[in-house]
Amino acid sequence: MNSSPTHAGREPISSPPRGPVPTRISQRFARAVQEAVGLDQEAAWTRALALFSQMAGALLLSRAVVSTDPSLADEILAAAREDLHTRAHQK
Length: 91
Fold this sequence. Notes:
By secondary structure, the chain is mostly helical.
């Protein structure tokens, strides 16, 4: 049995991603955040969830308005990209 700590009952970030694609993506994203910023596993997982959710939300909102207001769609993505970049690199 693996003695690595887990986050919220999930596989340890250091283990190879397994399971459904969304789970594997979020695990890889959490590992990348942990390595880039130097957070502990729990903090990296929490940060990854928040960033991943923000990316998905920005994409969803952008697609919802693109047919009626393409410039707003671009603005949503640009604002999210700038904020995500800043927050992803904060300790």
